Amino acid sequence: MTLNITQNTRRAPVIGASQWSNILKLVGLMAVANGRFVQDDMEAFKDAMMELRAVVDPTLVMTRRMAQDWMVIHKDELTAVVDGLEYDSELIAIFKEIRNFPHKLDVVTAMMRVGIADGDHGHMEKMFLKKTILYWNIRSHERFDQTQKVPAPFMAITA
Fold it and tell me: pLDDT tens for residues 76-116?
């Protein structure tokens, strides 16, 4: 007796393209939030997106190169959001689109990892992270349930 194991390629994706776009924006905002975009930020962004892809939908075709290309294309748009006065409106628009997303803590963790990647965890990065946590109403018991996944600076910011 043999057991055939195959992947169901007809399976519907866990989340749609517009939701992925919003997740990319949230994590991307952290990469450009401190006003300068260095190689460490890019590497952290690519790492974070690969981890999110693995957690949210491992069957999704997204490579490190695709994440890098997305960031290069949207870097100016993200920088304009950070530099402008309408970042609250942009964040609310993003949160509305992914309000029922089940992996919110994973997204916040990815945002934190990108924010601290260059060694400079600035005011705007903290503000974006705090607004995300508050809007999504991530409670302290959720934070402690997944302590292994959350970097130490996350504990200090939300405490």
Answer: 999 999 998 888 899 999 999 888 888 999 999 999 999 88
Q: Is the pLDDT of residue 145 over 60?
A: no
**Domain locations in the chain?**
17-158
The closest alpha carbon to 116, from 24, 49, 50, 27, belongs to: 27
Distance CA 126, CA 128 (A): 6
Alpha carbon distance 74, 79 (integer Å) = 9
- Token pair 């990065």 in the structure block, residue: 125
Based on its alpha-carbon atoms, the radius of gyration of the chain, rounded to whole angstroms, reads 16
Residues in CB range of 75: below 8 A, 6 or more apart: 28, 32, 37
